[in-house]
Amino acid sequence: MRLSLPRFPTPSSLPPLPARDLVALLQEYLPSPSPLLGAVDNAIPVPIKQLVAEAPLNRLFADAIKEGEFDEFEGRRIRLEINGGQPGITLGFWAGRLRVIEGKGEATIRGSLAAFKTLAERKQDPDQLFFQRRLVIEGDTELGLALKNLLDSLEWNLQLREFLFRTR
C-alpha cells in the first residue's frame, strides 16, 4: 500500500489576493510602524517640523482662520499622538496662525495611524471614531471636543499632493 501526501497549491497556482485582503493580511501580521515613526519623529528637530507642517496646515484652513473660526483657540495647545506616545505633534494657534510647538498639549487626541487617516480623509463621522474609542481625548476634554467640533463643521478636503504643494 502506498501512502500519498496531500497536494498543497503552489503560490503560482493560486488566484491573486484582492488588494483589500492583502492590506488586511499585512496589517494583521506586519509589526506596527509606530516605533519606527517614533524614532524618526524624535530625530527631527522642531524647526524642521514647523517648516514642513505649518504652511500646509495654514493653507488648508486659510478660509476658516480668516473667518475667525480658530480664534477661540488663541494661545491654546493641542497634541495629536499616535497610540504609544510617539510620533506626535503639538499644535497651537497664535496671531492668526496655526503653529507647531514643542511640548505637551493642554488636550491630547490619541489614536491609531489608521484612525487619524480616516479622520483626515473624512471617511467616517468623527463622533463615531470617538464613540468607538478609535480616537481618545485626554486632558482638557472641552478643548479637544471644541477642536473636533470645529474640524467637523468646516468644509475641507485633505489630498496629500494638494496639502503639501498648493500655493495660495
How many structurally independent domains? 1
Structural category is alpha+beta
The level of helicity is: 40-55%
Write the CATH homologous superfamily.
SCP2 sterol-binding domain
Task: List the uncertain runs.
Answer: none
Beginning-to-end CA distance, first to last residue: 80 Å
Mean pLDDT: 82
CATH-scheme architecture: 2-Layer Sandwich
Order of helices and strands: HHHHEEEEHHEHH
The geometry reads as elongated
The third-level CATH topology is: Nonspecific Lipid-transfer Protein, Chain A
Question: CATH first level: which class?
Answer: Alpha Beta
Task: Compute the number of helices.
Answer: 8
Our estimate of the beta-strand percent is 15-25%
Number of strands: 5
Rounded to an integer, what's the Rg over CA atoms?
21 Å
Order of strands in the sheet with the most strands? 3-2-1-4-5
Largest sheet: 5 strands, mixed
Topology:
Layout: H1 19-29, H2 34-43, H3 46-60, H4 62-66, E1 77-82, E2 88-94, E3 97-101, E4 107-111, H5 113-120, H6 126-131, E5 135-139, H7 141-153, H8 160-165
Parallel strand pairs: 1-4
Antiparallel strand pairs: 1-2, 2-3, 4-5
Mind explaining what this structure looks like?
The protein has 168 residues and is α+β, with helices and mostly antiparallel strands. It has one domain (45-165): SCP2 sterol-binding domain (Nonspecific Lipid-transfer Protein, Chain A). It has eight helices and five strands. The chain has a five-stranded mixed sheet with strand order 3-2-1-4-5. The longest helix is centred in the N-terminal third of the chain and has 15 residues, at 46-60. The protein is elongated, with a radius of gyration of 21 Å. The chain starts with 18 loop residues before the first helix and ends with a helix. The mean pLDDT is 82. One of its GO terms (biological process) is ubiquinone biosynthetic process. Keywords: Ubiquinone biosynthesis. Pathway: Cofactor biosynthesis; ubiquinone biosynthesis.
